[in-house]
Amino acid sequence: MTDENQGLGPREFIGRRGGDVVTLVGGSVIAAVPEAKRAAEEARRELRFDFLDDQAVLDLLRRRHLDEEGMFKAGFVHGVPLALVGLGVVLYWAGVAQYWEAATHRNSYLAISAAVVVIQLFFFVRSAMSHWGDPVKQNLRARAARYRQIAHIARRGGADIPAHYPHYGPYPFAATFRPEVDDREQSESKGADDHGHR
Asked: How is residue 120 annotated by DSSP?
């Protein structure tokens, strides 16, 4: 268990909104709604994950929170410098550089500024692609997204489930399930069961 999850109770995980601690809704609560149970069984076959297994779901949601944190950090580390450098380049051009008399100095400034911004942009895109494009994490997001759908079906069917549970929104990108990667991940995981537990 990671440091961030160490202070959590046996059925708790950190929700996305504000970092609130959320208690897992038991699989029996979801399975009590026939439509949600059918959706969970279909999803199990499609995504190779037992959405009614409390321990597996708890591990999934804890890892999804860490993934969310990783996405934020990846964007922050490279996004903030890119924004600051870009803003600085524009402001300096608007206030100073465009008024230089020598065209060669202005052109040199533009060339150097463009090179710096392109380098910053490259690191930002590379970081984003390595995180968002990671196929193992895409499988994690695909399963988390499906679990959210199943929980909402159960809630609409009358189950006692909090609004917005499990507090992770839909994923319009980077949540495609890749079965070939899932097979590889499980085969490379020594002593892991069907859910990747050791």
From this structure: H
The number of C-alpha atoms within 13 Å of 149 and in the hemisphere containing its C-beta is: 15
- Burial call 23-41: b when 16+ CB within 10 Å, e when fewer: ebbebebbbebeebbebbe
Furthest CA-CA distance within the chain = 77
Distance in Å from the first CA to the final CA of the chain: 12
SS3 1: coil
pLDDT tens figures, 116-134? 999 999 988 888 788 778 8
Structure tokens at 4: 């961030």
What one-character-per-residue DSSP string does 146-180 give?
HHHHHHHHHHHTT----TTTT-----SSS----HH
* Short-list 127, 131, 137, CA closest to 175: 137
State pTM to two decimals: 0.75
For the stretch 83-102, pLDDT in tens is: 999 999 999 888 888 888 88
